[in-house]
Write the structure tokens for this entry.
Amino acid sequence: MTVRAVVAAGTDIGHVREGNEDSFLAEEPLFAVADGMGGHRGGEVASSLALETIERMFARGEGELVEQVREANRAVFERSTLDRAVAGMGTTLTAALLEGDHIRLAHVGDSRAYLVRDGRLRLLTEDHTLVHRMVLEGELTEAEAEVHPHRSILTRALGVDPDVEVDEITLEVRAGDRLLLCSDGLTGMLPEPRVEEILGAEVEPQRAVDRLIREANDAGGVDNITAIVIALTDADIDPSEGDTSATTDTAALGGRAERTSGSAEQEPPRPTPRSLASSRRPKPPWPKLATWVGVTLGILVLAFVGLRLYLDSQWFVGVSDGRVAVYRGIPAQVAGFDLNHVVVETSIPADAATSFALYRDLPDGITADDREEAQQIVEQIRRDTAIGQQDAGAGGGA
Ligand code: MG
């Protein structure tokens, strides 16, 4: 028997964080939650880059899920090594792939996957946290771990080392099962019995997601909250009674803010930039010239830093590898250097979008005020291209 999925997903900034560093991916049959860390920008880049990597590899049929997760690790690690602005970033990743009547899970970090069967909630993943290790070693009880101030310190995350150990779980599923993928902003706020009650009361996935997020916020919302509920139904039964709007074909890749509440140890120390002018120089032959060189260098450094800050605040939607992509920066080059980088590459073929007059400027870049707006443009393109395909099919002409 094969099962089909009715999916709903949501993410929320919570009440405390300044941004949302969580990201999720809900493109049947691939679902994933990632919780970024390493400062505002780093966490956002890490979680979206990880999901973008597995999404792209999956779309191209490259490797098994676990290999896609290892590649996501390499991608985050390399970016973190190359770009000082995001040095030390990392992310959790809990991914689920629906294959016939099996779910394959790949997991690193403290986001979680649960199975809901016959009304009971069962944790499928193991937290890669210091407190969980201490519980296993008998140093803490489960109850102490739940409220421990360092409960968010990870023992394993994506992007920290060139290689990562990935937990793999394969599970047989059946119609009626539900799967919950979530970040620790949900499970840190709501005890498991409450999550079980909510999922018992709200059978419809979107209602379940909305209520989980609302109650996590009501309980304090100290972290970003992300939840995906995947309800499995019999593929042979006509799903006309189901709410088809809940099946997501929209990959929503959100992202931002601090990953853990007030734990400064999560924030990797930044290398202090050394002043170019401060090093001791052996008595300069022409002191005046040296001063002018110093001043000029100083101005160049300031100009560079200013440009960098400016570029980091700019967003646009463009084309990367023939697909619609969200970029940070401006769509331009200076002396052969791109003033931008891809943040999310979607699965939407660029030609599908540029066939619409509205998106003819896409190859040159459609600018957006912020990441939200860029994401909205992508979602609009996704909807429009899907509508276009439907129309072409329904019309039957040409
Ligand atoms: Mg979190």
Observations:
- The pocket of magnesium ion is lined by residues 35, 183-185, 223-224, 259 (CB under 6 Å).
- Residues 38 and 263 are 11 Å apart (CA to CA).
- The chain has two domains: 3-234, 315-397.
- The longest strand covers residues 337-349.
